[in-house]
Write a structure and sequence with these properties.
single chain; mainly beta; Methylamine Dehydrogenase, Chain H; 6-stranded mixed beta sheet
């Protein structure tokens, strides 16, 4: 009997470990946020920290209203009832949607890679299912026994939260855009671009077409008690179905391109958000719009999710994500709005050579002012130059920095963060690249007008303009500051004193990324193919090194010029040019768009294309 009991105990342990794998989560406290959970032990070893929150995608309230959940390219963020940050969970997956369980104790997340169930208080995570579709929406059933998710595929996945069993239901003929569980009856409905709403019975496992909308269904949601099903379509039609009689009433609005929809807990109001970044609050019973907000930027935002707005369970306020990547709280009674926090979703950054500071500019769609980040103290300051910043660079002495926008520049003091001077000129085009020469006051800006402007930062004026046959997408002064490397289809070097240009290196693929060593006569190029090229600016000697991924690889030299950092598809690499060895670090969320070294050469800062986050990777011991 004793041996049988031991066998049973072993089987139970093995089964439990398989059902709920040993957690790979731990907390760190050495960068920015005191409570950050990191997923993946191997990835955690190479990462020191993350800067920024990334793009916001969706939101959700717990049923008791005490917790507020945001999904972002950082991962998931949990706030208390006063919208104060309580916990941030970083994942390697690019999460697009999440939802609270009915009891508020767990969170389910949906990314392109995986469907996961998070037990935040106990720091555990369970993989429910691999995901093989572009994710759209994930929801819990009212009892919490099922999770359903949909995306840009023609079916809805139904997953049992205890057993992990998976079933494909509600098969459409086009992309599934929205799903909803009935709050009291065993049904789930789905809307699709095939212009139909389908219904599935959890009781008898049958599905059928519930309604033919005759236009693309964008979003659908049940009323709180389940008496009505609200169906929003692309052409701003709202169809209200009496779920018992199946009778449908149609409302036509004067705004276009509905993107998201929510209903208040008392069923008095509906909130809408459009593709053109307009928020609308509608009084259902009075059939009138009581609030319109925005947009300050009418350009379509590609970051929105069907759950980019939500009502608080008390019904007194509604929140939404605006075009500036902010969470906005709207008081329904007074109509007052309160934007919560500016989330950092970066489009570019530059690092000071002394390793103390970062300058960040936002993603072009967000149109936000740049941030100055003091890394040692994790302190962030908003810089307001008065124009949209596209490119930035630090002076090699790390005492000044330059901001450039279309037709404008501003030069700042690092210590005081005060503007020393600004300049605007009709010869400025869209700035492609900016650089400041070492040990001098000369700056260069390449622009979309097919020229390069040289600016004397001491005299505060443009001293020279050279015209090019095609734009230089990247420029960099050499270590002497007397020559400027320019990346076209070839690598050209301009001698500033002699006013002459020569082609130093020519190859197929174009020179879209380059960097110069601050201490040596070398330039490194990032090839569109699987190659890096190290070019001697004096002799023209070339050394090439293969890398894993195709694409435009950003490159950067370490301070002393021995190491070259480069980015790739979900990877960061370091080339030791002395030993001629390459080491790559994998596990990032998207293609790495930009890289920079810390002063001591131990860390690489990198920016992902899709996540807007700056990650700090330990590359040497």
């Amino acid at each position: 009997m004793k041996s049988i009991a031991i066998v049973i105990q072993i089987v139970l342990v093995l089964f439990t470990q398989r059902l709920w794998p040993k957690s790979q989560l731990t907390e760190i406290t050495d960068i920015n946020d005191p409570d950050v959970i990191w997923e993946g032990s191997e990835f955690r070893k190479q990462i020191k920290g993350v800067i920024g929150n990334g793009f916001l995608y969706s939101m959700n309230y717990s049923e008791d209203g005490k917790s507020f959940l945001l999904t972002s390219s950082f991962g998931i963020e949990l706030y208390d009832s006063n919208y104060h940050l309580d916990k941030r969970v970083f994942t390697q997956d690019l999460i697009k949607d999440a939802a609270f369980s009915p009891d508020g104790k767990k969170v389910v997340t949906l990314s392109r890679e995986a469907l996961k169930l998070w037990d935040i208080p106990n720091k555990k995570v369970r993989l429910l299912s691999q995901v093989k579709m572009i994710p759209r929406q994930v929801i819990f059933s009212p009892k919490g026994d099922y999770v359903a998710y949909c995306g840009y595929r023609f079916g809805v996945q139904l997953v049992h939260t205890d057993t992990g069993s998976i079933q494909t239901i509600l098969k459409h003929k086009n992309f599934t855009t929205s799903i909803a569980f009935h709050p009291t009856e065993p049904y789930i409905v789905s809307g699709s671009r095939d212009q139909t709403v389908r219904i599935y019975s959890l009781k008898d496992r049958s599905d059928q077409v519930l309604y033919n909308a005759k236009e693309d269904v964008i979003s659908l949601i049940f009323s709180p008690k389940g008496h009505y099903l609200y169906i929003a379509t692309k052409n701003s039609n709202l169809k209200i179905m009496d779920f018992r009689t199946r009778k449908v009433t149609n409302y036509q609005f004067d705004f276009k391109e509905l993107q998201a929809m929510a209903v208040s807990p008392d069923n008095k109001y509906m909130a809408f958000y459009t593709l053109a970044n307009r928020f609308i609050l509608w009084d259902i019973k009075k059939n009138r719009i009581v609030k319109r907000i925005g947009p300050s930027n009418p350009l379509p935002s590609r970051y929105l999710n069907s759950k980019s707005l939500a009502f608080h369970p008390n019904g007194k306020k509604v929140t939404y994500i605006n075009e500036k990547n902010q969470v906005v709280v709207v008081d329904i009674k007074s109509g007052k709005t309160l934007p919560l926090e500016e989330h950092g979703a970066y489009g570019a950054f530059s690092a000071s050579w002394d390793g103390q500071y970062l300058l960040t500019s936002s993603d072009p769609l967000l149109d936000m002012d740049p941030r100055f980040i003091h890394l040692k103290y994790s302190r962030t300051t908003l810089i307001q130059p008065g124009f949209k910043v596209i490119r930035s660079t630090f002076h090699p002495d790390s005492k000044r920095f330059l901001l450039a926008g279309e037709g404008k520049i501003a030069y700042y003091n690092v210590k005081t963060l005060k503007k020393e001077f600004s300049l605007k000129d009709e010869e400025f085009g869209l700035p492609y690249s900016v650089n400041i020469a070492p040990r001098s006051h000369l700056a260069a800006i390449s622009t979309s007008y097919n020229n390069v402007l040289f600016i004397d930062l001491k005299k505060k004026k443009i001293t020279k303009v050279i015209d090019l046959e095609s734009p230089a997408f990247c420029i960099s002064f050499d270590h002497t500051g007397k020559r400027l490397a320019m990346g076209h289809s070839d690598l050209d070097v301009y001698d500033i004193k002699r006013n002459t240009t020569k082609t130093l290196y020519s190859y197929i693929g174009g020179t879209n990324t380059l960097a110069s060593s601050l201490t040596r006569n070398w330039i490194v190029l990032g090839d569109l193919r699987r190659l890096l090229h190290l070019v001697n600016i004096d002799t023209g000697e070339v050394r090439s090194k293969p890398k894993r991924s195709f694409g435009k690889s950003p490159v950067a030299f370490s301070y002393r010029g021995r190491y070259v950092a480069f980015g790739g598809y979900k990877s960061v690499g370091v080339w030791d040019t002395f030993k001629d060895k390459v080491k790559e670090f994998r596990g990032y969320k998207s293609f790495v768009e930009q890289v920079a070294f810390s002063r001591d050469g131990k860390y690489v800062y990198s920016l992902g294309r899709e996540d807007g986050l700056i990650m700090i990777t330990r590359v040497t011991q």
